[in-house]
Amino acid sequence: MAASAPNMNNEPEASEAAMRAPSENGAAERSGSWPRLQRHIFRTASRHLPDSSTDADGPSVEPPPKRTGTYARWLPVLKALPWVLGALFALSFVWDFPGVTLTVAGYAVVLEDLLRFTAVSGLVGFGTNWLAITMLFRPREPRPLVGQGLVPAQRERVAYRLAQAVSDELINKALIKEKIRESGLVAQYRDLLVAAAGDVATDDAVRTEAKALLRRVLRDVLSTPSVQERIVALTAEQVEAQAGEGLSGLMLRAYRYFGEDDFRARLHETVRRLPDAVDPLVEELDPVLDRLPAELERRGDEIEALLTRVLLRLVDTLDLERMIYENVRAYDERQLEMLLRRTTNEQLNYIKYLGAALGIVGGFIIWAPAAALAAVTTLGLAVYAVDEALHRARTDAAPSS
């Protein structure tokens, strides 16, 4: 036996080149099998994914209707006031009630300079409001004399305060965690995960590709000379360790002493046949996959707890304040202006043009202080009384409706 051992021992060395070619072929086959297996898994699992087509059509929350109020009806009229006041101011240089006197309740009221007073006051009221609102956003870039608009100049501060307010009051970690627990999404997706995993495990196409890929991997690995050498060395070591110190151990050591080459050659031959023995091992995958759905269902609570911990840990790692700050900070001056104007532009215009109307009132007060103050005070009190009465009537009627 010792004489024949060297020839047998040389067989693995002689066939090393032949083993390398199947290994390279196996790598090429695996590179094609893995994408096919992925496609089968994704196709099978995607049947359980929720339909997102409705979410893609629009936002999940409908935008609230714009509350314009009664001022929206007056805005077109107010927009015309600056032009009317400008025309009246120009007219005042030509004619402004020269020498005209009006008698009211026995009192003589001089109308001269009425146009100029009211026109100038109205234009000043409009101009100051226009300037104040414009200076919120313009100039966008710093200028040598006029400086920079309030919002562009404080862009970093606005972004910081906005991020701080949103992250502290609106979308904080505690709120997200509470919504995760209340929504039941974790349980829903746990059921989807268990159903998808069970469907994947029982799909014939997935099983076929998985076993084919596993078969190729095992054959490729077990055909590698370095792996075979390690298996031979480990087997020899374990055989000697298991033989012990008795008669069997003595006989094994004697055999190896006189026929070590034969012993190694037989181990090499056995290990070289391992790639041909992977098929029965791979077929054992079926019982495991058959038990997988029931095992996942049995451990559903553990899976839900694990998913919850993962989600909560993910929330803990998010720096919401920095995310919001960096996103808002990335807005340039024009984008930040549009962000603020998008929701307040109509109100800002109302305030701007209302200044012209209030300026006209101021012009009347300058022109005739006593009479104008009495009229404005009386009109203001009347408006307040009517508004208060309507508000109380609406409040009293609300519970009964």
Structural account:
The chain is mainly alpha-helical and 401 residues long. Among the domains are: 5-48 and 203-296, no CATH class; 373-401. The chain is built from 18 helices and two strands. It has helices at 5-14, 16-45, 53-57, 71-92, 114-137, 150-153, 155-170, 173-183, 185-202, 204-222, 225-243, 247-272, 278-283, 285-298, 300-317, 320-329, 333-367, 369-400; strands at residues 101-104, 107-110. The protein has a two-stranded antiparallel sheet. The chain starts with a helix and ends with a helix.
Name some characteristics of this structure:
mainly alpha, 18 helices, 80% helix, two-stranded antiparallel sheet, 401 residues, disordered N terminus
SSE inventory with pairings:
Layout: H1 5-14, H2 16-45, H3 53-57, H4 71-92, E1 101-104, E2 107-110, H5 114-137, H6 150-153, H7 155-170, H8 173-183, H9 185-202, H10 204-222, H11 225-243, H12 247-272, H13 278-283, H14 285-298, H15 300-317, H16 320-329, H17 333-367, H18 369-400
Antiparallel strand pairs: 1-2
Helix pairs in contact: 1-12, 2-9, 2-10, 4-5, 4-17, 5-17, 7-16, 8-15, 9-14, 9-15, 11-12, 17-18
- Contiguous uncertain segments of 5+ residues: 1-23, 54-59
Tell me how many strands there are: 2
Spatial order of strands in the largest sheet: 1-2
Major pleated sheet? 2 strands, antiparallel
Average pLDDT over all residues: 76
Helix percent reads over 70%
User: Which H/E pattern describes the elements?
Assistant: HHHHEEHHHHHHHHHHHHHH
